[in-house]
Write a structure and sequence with these properties.
Elements (H helix, E strand, L loop, with lengths): L3 H11 L16 E2 L9 H13 L5 E13 L5 E13 L7 E14 L2 E14 L2 E12 L6 H4 L1 H7 L3 E5 L8 E2 L2 E2 L2 H13 L3 E12 L2 E10 L1 H15 L5 H14 E10 L5 E11 L6 E11 L13 E2 L2 H7 L48
Parallel strand pairs: 1-10, 7-15
Antiparallel strand pairs: 2-3, 2-14, 3-4, 4-5, 5-6, 6-7, 8-9, 10-11, 11-12, 12-13, 13-14
Helix pairs in contact: 1-6, 4-8, 5-6, 6-7
Length: 373
């Protein structure tokens, strides 16, 4: 549902990604340094970016970059992972949206006397009706459990090199309300709200720079916790998901104490498209003091990505087989260390559960482009 939790999950994970479609930028103007000065008000630049995102002006293109995650729970364990992403999209026609994703993952972790490392490559294809997935390669190694490689062999044999199809209950690109798809009135109100909500402050205006031979405005931004709380309450009022003043206050306090989120973006001087983004996020669990750091850097190309076709030979996804073929220690939790994957200690506080930062329930699929139509 398009609830406060869904909005904030997207905000806090990929808040500066150009495809998010929410009003994530705004605030007070900062200093100018580095690039060529510009007379255009940086706040107005961001508002023009927001409007373009909401109107889906960038209807096709590609996004390429990487996301790095580092988690440390002290004696409970630690985890490092790098995601390499290459995405092509065509979202110009409602009901015919298409997104292709090449994903590569590498990571390692340790905790409670065990350690391991793994690599995976996969392809995903998302449409308004279906999710397609193909595992290209998958490997896990552990000095303490050398048998893992043999144990995962049935899983790899079952899934690798094949396309699988999972029907979706509803169009993931559409905004949702408490009781389903937003009404036109609700959608209009949310779009008007995000145009006015300054969820980020401008901390520095670097001026006009060159990026791939294009003039771009380079801006640094930082999360405004108070405005995020106000935004959460107002979205709840529009969608029928009540957010109390107490919950808003708790959200603001959690953001101020446990989360830092800032980033940079490079905006085309003439077209106001975002051509590059950087994200830096640090979170601390107030109970365990587990720390999570997320950094991301992505470049955007608004040119035609070519023909995006659904896989013709996709099979229904055998979810039962997934659980049955999983290697012991992967699916049954024996490799899942407390504070790493088996509980929320290594997660950003309240990001993946109904805890301090998420005052209402919902799906946290902020990576989708549900809010920018």
């Amino acid at each position: 549902m398009y609830t406060t939790r869904k909005t904030l999950a997207g905000l806090l994970v990929l808040s500066l990604v150009v495809l998010s479609g929410c009003n994530l930028f705004g605030g007070q103007g900062g200093t100018s340094s580095g690039g060529k000065p510009s007379s255009e008000d940086p706040k107005q630049v961001l508002r023009m970016v927001q409007e373009k995102l909401q109107n889906r002006d960038m209807k096709e293109g590609s996004v390429k970059g990487n996301v790095k995650v580092k988690a440390d729970a002290g004696t409970q364990g630690s985890f490092d992972a790098t995601f390499a992403l290459d995405t092509k999209f065509n979202i110009g026609t409602k009901g015919q949206e298409k997104v292709w994703l090449d994903l590569a993952l590498s990571g390692s972790g340790k905790g409670q006397g065990q350690s391991g490392e793994g690599n995976a490559k996969a392809q995903l294809f998302l449409t308004a009706a279906n999710l397609y997935a193909k595992l290209i390669e998958f490997s896990v190694k552990s000095p303490e459990q050398p048998q893992l490689e043999q144990q995962i062999a049935p899983f790899v044999q079952l899934y690798a090199g094949k396309w699988f199809k999972l029907p979706l209950p509803q169009n993931p690109f559409e905004m949702e309300g408490q009781s389903g798809t937003l009404t036109p009135d609700q959608e209009a109100k949310i779009k008007d709200l995000v145009k006015k909500s300054d969820l980020f402050d401008i901390t520095k205006d670097h001026g006009v720079e060159k990026l791939n031979n294009k003039d771009v405005r380079h801006l640094s931004v930082k999360l405004n916790a108070k405005n995020v709380g106000t935004f959460a309450k107002q979205v709840g009022e529009i969608t029928g998901s009540t957010v109390s003043d107490t919950e808003v206050k708790a959200l603001e306090e959690a953001l101020n104490k446990n989360v830092t989120l800032d980033g940079e973006l490079w905006v085309g001087e003439s077209d106001k498209y975002v051509y590059k983004v950087k994200i830096n996020m640090n979170t601390t669990d107030p109970a365990s003091q587990a720390k999570v750091t997320v950094t991301a850097e992505m470049e955007v190309n608004p040119e035609n990505p070519g023909n995006l076709e659904e896989p013709k030979d996709a099979q229904p996804l055998p979810l039962g087989g997934m659980m049955g073929a999983g290697a012991p220690g992967m699916m049954d939790g024996s490799m899942t260390q407390p504070g790493m994957m088996g509980d929320d200690k290594m997660m950003a506080p309240g990001m993946m559960d109904s805890g301090t930062m998420m005052p209402s329930s919902g799906t946290g699929d902020g990576m989708m482009m549900e809010g920018d139509q």
